[in-house]
Amino acid sequence: MIQHPVSFLIADSFLIFLPLLIIFDFLRKKTFSWFPGSLLPIVVGLYILLQNIFTQQHPEMLIGLFAMAFCFTTSKQERLYKILSVCRYLFLYIFTSAAIWKIARGAIFNVEEFSNILIQQHADILTVPVQTALGKYYFFLINHPGVSLSLYIGAVVLELYFIIGFFTTRKDHLLLALSILFFIADYFLMRIPFWPLLVLGVTLTKFINKNIRLIPLLQLK
Amino acid sequence: MNDAQMQSNNGGRFIFLLLLLQIVVNILHSVTAFPFLHYGMYSESFERKKTTVYEVWVNGKQLPPKDFPVLTWDMLHIPLASREKMTATHDFAFDKNAIESDMSKAGLANVFNVIKPNLDNAAISDSSFAAWYQSYLQRILHYPVNTLTIVKSEYICNDGNYVLLKREPWLQLN
């Protein structure tokens, strides 16, 4: 691709125009066709992998776009809600596994954990004279490990709460609010924009979750 | 069991299998296979250690990190950190050896031999890398980069302050 820069334009064109083609096809036939719908997850998946290669940024924040792209592969309601169920479980899993890893690897027991994370994460902006309020706030958290650890443990508790979504859909509105809160906090504390993952939050809305399929073994009666 | 119940059970099993696959990938710790990714970022126990910062000086002025969107700044400094890591690890020799060992244990040694050439990064000199980085920066900054200096600094954070341990020119162009 580097030796043939026009390939970048082709890749971008696929990503931009394929959804437009799908929408146009839907408006014409009043139904989603498996083709070009099936192309969308392939194009999105490849694009995410290429983006990861060229920018070396983690693909995790874009996985929601890949998962939701499968929604356009079918016009059958039953199949659509199966796909949305998978997307919902993926969203729950992302949070739950993040919490479990932090507990299992002992991070929450390290008093200086979040302070040390902040030192590494913001070194590039904190090693120059700091004048912004956010920079001063980072220094405050670095210098007060107890406060920063409280935030870290609070995040773990928030993430762990998502486990309830595996058993019932009754708390989905709360989980959606918590996910938005988490991404806002993550952006201001860590400067990591996880916004694209919120696309999976659609599966927690009342419009969608009333038709979500729970795993029968786990479902609360 | 009627058709609706069977469909319901099949749907639940399908979802359960996908989840199980995701869990298996996660238990394998650092192994990821898109789209089954690992969501354990910032979960290891972080100790206080030296921090490396790359100062990017373009046309005699330092690029201020706070003036860039975070993902754009990542695009500026990650190639530098990666170049450093590639040199220090002899082109990620440890990781490649680990992959070869794991694939051999799984009976996939022949597959590894096929993909091995694609795992090796082409050796390029510092001057070639600097020239590449110059053109890469120009596309991101949207203005000419006539002079380029990368300064590598190491800090340790003590008593709430970053203490400079070492500062040295790392890359120079023009």
Which secondary structure elements does this structure contain, and how are they paired or packed?
The complex is a heterodimer of chains A (221) and B (174).
Chain A: H1 6-29, H2 34-37, H3 39-55, H4 63-69, H5 77-104, H6 113-121, H7 123-126, H8 133-143, H9 145-161, H10 172-190, H11 206-209
Helix pairs in contact in A: 1-3, 3-4, 5-9, 6-8, 9-10
Chain B: H1 3-27, E1 51-58, E2 61-62, H2 70-88, H3 93-105, H4 109-119, H5 126-141, E3 148-158, E4 161-173
Antiparallel strand pairs in B: 1-2, 1-3, 3-4
Helix pairs in contact in B: 3-4
Commentary on this structure:
The complex is a heterodimer of chains A (221) and B (174). Chain A has 221 residues and is mostly helical. Chain A is 65% helix and 0% strand. Chain A contains eleven helices and no strands. Chain B is an alpha+beta fold and 174 residues long. Helices cover 48% and strands 20% of the residues of chain B. A four-stranded antiparallel sheet of chain B has the order 2-1-3-4. In chain B, a hairpin with a 2-residue loop joins strand 1 and strand 2.
**Number of strand segments of chain A:** 0
The residue fraction in helices of chain A comes out at 55-70%
Overall geometry of chain B: extended
State the helix count of chain B: 5
Into which percentage range does the β-strand content of chain A fall? Answer: under 5%
Rounded to an integer, what's the Rg of chain A over CA atoms?
21 Å
User: How many strands, what sense, and barrel or not for the largest sheet of chain B?
Assistant: 4 strands, antiparallel
Unreliable stretches of chain B: none
Notable characteristics:
heterodimer; A: 11 helices; B: 174 residues; alpha+beta; 5 helices
Write a brief caption for the model.
The complex is a heterodimer of chains A (221) and B (174). Chain A is mainly α.
